[in-house]
User: Which sequence fits this backbone?
């Protein structure tokens, strides 16, 4: 999972930057993973407060990635 976790950090930073530049914040974080057999896993979590930081986005996406069924599929 390490390569995916590093990529999530890069992507979280990019998303947070775009969101802040647009003057927006969001509460729902979505992770979409396309597998080698072309199946797509999508998981989302709605947070209790709006966020625009890479750290909050990254933490949430890591939790979604590490959730049982997603981690099992990508491992």
Assistant:
């Amino acid at each position: 999972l390490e390569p995916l976790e590093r990529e999530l950090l890069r992507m979280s930073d990019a998303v947070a930057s775009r969101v802040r530049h647009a003057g927006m914040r969001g509460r729902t974080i979505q992770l979409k993973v396309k597998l080698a057999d072309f199946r797509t896993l999508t998981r989302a979590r709605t947070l209790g407060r709006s966020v625009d930081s890479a750290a909050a986005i990254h933490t949430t996406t890591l939790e979604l990635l590490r959730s049982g069924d997603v981690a099992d599929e990508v491992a």
